[in-house]
Amino acid sequence: MCKVIVFAGTTEGREVAEFLDRREISAHICVATEYGEQLLQGGKHLEISHERLDSEEMEQLIKEKKCEMVIDATHPYAAEVTINLKKACDAAGVSYLRVLRENQEEQDSRDCLYAESVEDAVALLEHTKGNILATTGSKEAVKYTALTDYEKRVFLRVLSLPKVVKQCQELGFQGKNLICMQGPFSKELNMAMLRQWDCKYLVTKMSGATGGFREKIDAARTCGCIPVIIGRPLKEEGISVNECKRVLCQKFSLRSQAEISLVGFGMGSRENRTEEASKAIREADLLIGARRMIDACREFGKDCYVEYDSQKIARYLAEHPEYEKVAVLLSGDPGFNSGAKKLLDVLGDQVKVICGVSSVSYFMSRIRKSWDDVLITSAHGKSTNLITLIKRNKKVCAILGTRDGIRKLAQEMAAHGMQRARLYTGECLSYPEERIQKGTPEDFLTYEADPLSIVYVENPDARKEYVTHGISDTEFIREKVPMTKEEVRTVSLSKLHLEEDSVCYDVGAGTGSVSIEMALRSWNGNVYAIEKKALAVELLKKNKEKFAVENLEIIEGTAPDALEDLEPPTHAFIGGSSGNMETILRLLLEKNPSVRIVINCIALETVSETLQCLKTLPVKDAEILQIAVSKGKTVGNYHMMMGENPIYIISCTGGK
Fold first, then answer.
1. Is residue 70 within 8 Å of 55, Cβ to Cβ?
2. Helix H segments across 43-186?
3. How much is the pLDDT for 284?
4. Dihedrals phi, psi of 651, to nearest 5 degrees
5. What is the pLDDT of residues 626-636, one digit of tens each?
6. Beta partners for 651?
């Protein structure tokens, strides 16, 4: 007993049969020739026969095998077989499924001649001159003998079977006019044949993608040869191979066993892809990716799913177990600012990753710059403090993600006095509309770019920042606003345990000395300076501009109200509480129960209030220290130590 009978006279039939074998579904496969039987040898779950059956014999076979389904994957031109098979299935009461290859008639209708049959094509060609490559098979060979001088004019391509060769020779096709080869035939091989025999016409049936139709038409057009296309004699309705596999998976409750490749797509053009990536795309029966990448592969005739959300992709694959080879297309290289990270998490360890050409390597080659000493980052879909990076590094390359990205960067650079810097910009990389430009920040002040662009900046005035905390007090614009002094600031910041991507609050920021150093240390994070006094806010703005800390945001207002709408902090420094210490601390812990907090106190009352809070609030690792700084002052010929007010530095971390 077998579950499925497949009448497999085409490549599609063989593909369905091999799918059944791989999925361990017992099937009986009927092929038209001994050659077809040889192609399917080795299937553990397949019975194969090549006898020709009439309608009654088909019905008898169906009843004998007690199958659950019959799949008709015979050639579109085997109309009689299809008619008989439908009758047999109706008589046996078994479901019938017709599998047809995709028709590319609409794409290939230009610059072609059409005929209803080979006889019509021969009648049409009788009134033309020039050699003919006939690719319609040995069964149609006799029809070409009606052409005048067919022995010299027609080059017949058939299978390399002894019986076929003998038959064609008896018809008068001999020597170079009889081409015995087994396909598939690439475009290049078709071109070579057309040129070798100086053919002006190529006769082909409309056999679809897997029958090499596309390669024949492309070759003919490239060689200036006219395709003569013979349309299907029977108008049918059916489903594709993948749809057939989907039906089989549903009927037999099969789960996905897909081979999944995350394919680095490069910049987008075909020439920019690696051969490994192109091979994965050609062999896949499903392509997944963003619209731009899917559209670039439409010519392959694959099933497509336009999506880039990893969870949705995983769910789609689970719901469509019919796909066996899947290519998930990723822009550039999967290892560089790609969706591959999330996809690997949800798709498992068996996924293959195929590298591609990254935007950075492509762009840097186009502007003829080495990039082994370049700081590389991305501002696509996330916040990145590019100004700080450019200020610190002589060479920075960044991917941008908005139309105004280049313009805003140029404006910020100009505002920070980076007139000597040079910008190189790239848009639509590898496409015909690719645009690469260079200039100073002033050249891009009003520029609007493609959303997916890249910029490389050379800043000859880049300078190294302090490795440790401790910018000199004299560096800050101060006027009459209180400032946390250098030594106290250094100890306080060391107690904060900042990281490069920390989210920091500076409550009671004053001149912003702590805020500035926070922003410089946490250059890849965000710093919020909260200050209620208008004069201090103006000084904060001036110091922000002087130190070029674009990741510093100034919030005018009083804590805790001014903190309500801010993102949760990882770190907080409280230099002034305006009598709201407890409510400020409660809000910080509510926003982030594990926040790291450092508090500076001068008045003993503030120390007492803070210690009481530490007793009642959920904090741990509390530490209290007092620091008293004395600085030398020259008095005549002597040096005297002048003491400053002692400061209490209290630190803790949220949690118990």
1. no
2. 55-65, 79-92, 118-125, 150-153, 162-170
3. 92
4. -130, 150
5. 999 888 888 88
6. 598, 623
Quote the Cα angle for 333-339-344, to 5°: 100
Please state, in angstroms and as integers, the Cα–Cα distance from residue 414 to each residue in 359, 410, 441, 444, 538, following that order. Answer: 26, 6, 6, 10, 21
pLDDT the model gives residue 183: 82
Quick one: which of 41, 39, 43 has its CA closest to 9? 39
| Whole-number Å distance between alpha carbons of 561 and 564 | 6
Rg (CA), the chain: 38
Q: What is the mean pLDDT of the chain?
A: 89
Q: Name the nearest CA neighbour of 572 among 642, 497, 630.
A: 497
Region of poorest pLDDT, from 14-18, 39-43, 281-285, 424-428: 39-43
Question: DSSP letter at 443?
Answer: G
E strand residue ranges, 508-570? 526-531, 552-556
Mean pLDDT of 603-613: 92
pLDDT at 310: 92
At 561, list the tokens.
């109200």
Closest CA to 135 of 219, 57, 62: 219
pLDDT of res. 299: 61
For residue 425, list its beta bridge partners.
Answer: 437, 455
Place of tokens 């007090």: 473
Q: Could you give the CA distance from residue 226 to residue 200 in angstroms, rounded to a whole number?
A: 6
**First vs last Cα of the chain: how many Å apart?**
69
Average the pLDDT over 205-216 and give the result: 72
Question: Average pLDDT, stretch 466-470?
Answer: 61
pLDDT band at 234 (very low <50, low <70, confident <90, very high): low
Structural contact between residues 576 and 601, judged by C-beta atoms closer than 8 angstroms:
no
pLDDT tens by residue, 365-399: 999 999 999 999 988 877 777 888 898 899 999 99
Query: CA-to-CA distance for 429 and 455, rounded, in angstroms?
Result: 12
Which residue in 490, 413, 487, 489 sits closest to 447, CA to CA? Answer: 413
| Mean of pLDDT values over 406-429 | 92
The gap from C-alpha 158 to its chain's centroid, in whole angstroms, comes to 43
| Short-list 571, 575, 613, CA closest to 592 | 571
Peptide bond into 441 cis (omega under 30): no
DSSP 30: E
- In angstroms, the CA 86 to CA 384 distance is 65
Please tell me the distance from the alpha carbon of residue 95 to that of residue 159, in angstroms, as a whole number.
Answer: 34
Q: For 308-340, give one letter per residue: b (16+ CB within 10 A) or e.
A: bebeebbebbeebbbbbebbbbbbbbbebbbbb
Over residues 544-553, mean pLDDT: 88
Q: How far is CA 317 from CA 51, 279, 328, in A?
A: 39, 21, 11
CB count, 10 Å around CB of 210?
17
CB 396, CB 386: distance < 8 Å? yes
> Which of 21-28's residues contact partners 24+ apart within 8 Å by CB, and which partners?
21/45, 21/46, 22/257, 22/324, 23/248, 23/252, 23/254, 23/257, 25/248, 25/252, 26/1, 26/2, 27/2, 27/3, 28/2, 28/4, 28/61, 28/65, 28/67
- 81-135 pLDDT per residue, tens: 888 999 999 999 999 999 987 653 444 455 788 888 999 999 999 989 999 999 9
Check: pTM over 0.70? Answer yes or no: no
Q: Report the Cα 157 to chain-centroid distance in Å.
A: 42
Report residue 445 as tokens.
């002040």
Distance CA 99, CA 69 (A): 13
Question: Does residue 356 contact residue 332 with C-beta atoms inside 8 Å?
Answer: yes
